[in-house]
Design a protein that fits this description.
single chain, RmlC-like_jellyroll, Cupin domain-containing protein, UGlyAH_Cupin_dom, RmlC_Cupin_sf
Length: 118
């Protein structure tokens, strides 16, 4: 008898051990940012959901995936190459589409909820 997953899943960090990381050295622009990621959902086909947090710093980003973000706390500036820089803070929601290239600068430690589709 197989156990099925619950159909309702809270995006909650309780009981989830965060993955720790940092930008790749060749993408680092400024500071010493550190990441913590609580991935609470991972499905076949490349679907991920959870909470991500980063400390101040700036790095280059390039998206091959589609990502929905909702900022829970902090302040960041996301700048698109050849486009405008956008300041995001608690309460802001946005989508980064495949092909987005630019930089992410954490001004104040930022925490976001995310859903990623590869």
């Amino acid at each position: 008898m197989s156990m099925s997953l619950p159909s309702f899943l809270s995006i909650d960090t309780a009981g989830v051990t965060p993955e720790e990381g940092a930008p790749a050295p060749d993408r680092l622009v400024a500071g010493d940012p550190k990441f913590r990621t609580w991935n609470v959902e991972e499905r076949d086909g490349g679907l991920y959901a959870g909470i991500w947090e980063a400390t101040p710093g700036k790095w280059r980003i390039e998206y091959d995936e589609w990502e929905f973000c909702h900022i829970l706390s902090g302040v960041s500036v996301i700048a698109e190459d050849g486009g405008e820089a956008r300041t995001v803070r608690a309460g802001d929601s946005f989508v980064l589409r495949p092909g987005f290239k630019g930089s992410w600068e954490v001004v104040e430690t930022t925490r976001k909820e995310y859903v990623i589709r590869l």
